[in-house]
Specification:
single chain; Porin; two-stranded antiparallel ribbon; 10 strands
């Protein structure tokens, strides 16, 4: 990534090329075991970001951004009664740095709007937590709620809190002026972990969990017994999540693209003879 960024800094400015700054504001959410719908504004949180964009041509650009958001989910909002009975929840902040290649389907220097798509690579950091029955914030990874890192479960490995993701997305852009473009953007992140929400596989033996991580780990691994009439801790091996599907997170909102200069646009307009004529000076 560093080599690509250095190459961009020293890339000669072509007639159509220009630098832009991106400012993003919107919401963040996730797809996983504790979210009822694959794409929804329910349980969403505010997100924001900023970065640089280099337009090689009117169609192709490279972008690098830093984004920050928060995602979370709760069984309390589930439609299925058995899922609500599980009574799990989580939240996590997400900090992301990415490098994206973007393609405009229509030349914005000739038209007022265009659909666009992008893909790339991102590095993100997360750290899931939940609140116990007393309202105390509890980070979940150290508790090994599904046996991560315990010798009795050698096939369940601890998950890293900083990982790679594959961003894919798109939207539609509207040119407001020669220097400003507004975009409605939806960007999904394909993850390589199912533990963004600390829920993936199966319940482990509560006695093993208690001996290894203490009573708090048992309480946070299953919270159905905190509900009125809730059942006790499930037998070891009972399904807790969906291990065959990985989690996702996504950003959606408005991106403001501000050009450092409008050289490419001016040259294009000049070539078409549509620059404003200078006023006469008397």
């Amino acid at each position: 990534m560093k080599r690509v960024l250095l190459a961009l800094l020293f890339f000669p400015v072509a007639s159509q090329a220009q630098w832009n700054v991106n400012i993003f504001g919107g919401f963040s959410n996730y797809i996983g075991e504790l979210q009822a719908a694959p794409y929804t504004t329910a349980q969403a949180h505010l997100a924001f970001g900023a970065g640089l964009q280099y337009d090689f041509t009117a169609h192709f650009s490279l972008l690098t951004n830093i984004n920050y958001g928060k995602v979370g989910g709760s069984d309390a909002f589930a439609q299925q009664a058995d899922v609500r009975a599980r009574n799990l929840s989580f939240e996590t902040s997400i900090g992301e740095s990415n490098l994206l290649a973007e393609y405009n389907l229509i030349d914005l220097r000739k038209h007022q709007f265009t659909p666009y798509i992008y893909a790339g690579i991102a590095v993100y950091h997360f750290n899931p937590y939940a609140f116990d029955s007393l309202g105390h914030k509890v980070y979940l990874r150290p508790l090994s709620t599904e046996g991560e890192g315990l010798p009795q479960y050698p096939n369940v490995h601890p998950y890293a809190l900083t990982q790679l993701a594959i961003p894919i997305g798109g939207g539609i852009k509207f040119r407001i002026s020669d220097q400003v473009v507004l975009a409605y953007d939806i960007g999904l992140r394909k993850l390589f972990t199912d533990y963004l929400d600390d829920v993936s596989g199966h319940y482990i033996d509560q006695n093993i969990l208690f001996a290894a991580r203490g009573g708090e780990a048992v309480q946070m691994a299953y919270r159905g017994n905190q509900l009125e009439g809730g059942a006790g801790y499930p037998p070891a091996g009972t399904r807790r999540g969906s291990p065959k599907s990985k989690d996702w997170y996504y950003f959606s909102g408005i991106r403001v693209i501000i050009a450092f200069n409008t050289r490419g646009i001016e040259l294009h307009r000049r070539s078409r003879g549509i620059l404003d004529c200078p006023k006469n000076v008397y």
